[in-house]
Amino acid sequence: MSRDKIKNLQDQIWATRVSRINAETRLIKKESFFQGINIYYSCFTIIVSIFSLINKDDKLSLLTLLMTISLLIAILYLNGQKFLNNAKEYKKNYTELHKLQLQLEHVSDGDVQSIEEIEDSYCKLLNNSENHISYDYYCTVYQSNDYYKIGRWKNIRFKYYWGSVWRFMIKFMIIILPFLLLVVSEVA
Length: 188
Fold this sequence. Notes:
Order of helices and strands: HHHHHHH
Mean pLDDT: 90
Largest sheet: none
């Protein structure tokens, strides 16, 4: 087996491992963001409820009721997503992938059996774990050194930046949504 084939396998395992690390990080950040949003929306709803009671505003009371119901549904849904549990699974997987990387460093060119065992273990790890999303891989390429980035970055640059922009826009819209609802309820 050639050194190039071993290097390709090393790169493949490395990219999968780092993509799983990025997936874990993404899920932990997502969990934190949604926990913060739950608190933010709850506080916002309480403040709007107090204003609706003080001002005896029926439109505002209706908005508060709709926000409370929506908040309850969102909290139940997001808790069902189990972001932290999935992040832990990714961590287990990328730890095992790292072990394969270390094993592969100690394999010589002619040791076909060891290489095949590592390839088999790699396939089993892929099969036993939920796959990361494409954006996690795009982040891997973006963060990688020039050796790995060359030839890959050109093809995914737009997808990486587009993924970053729409994720930011969604978070921004989630943050300003209560204010937009408040403005719309006052205008209506």
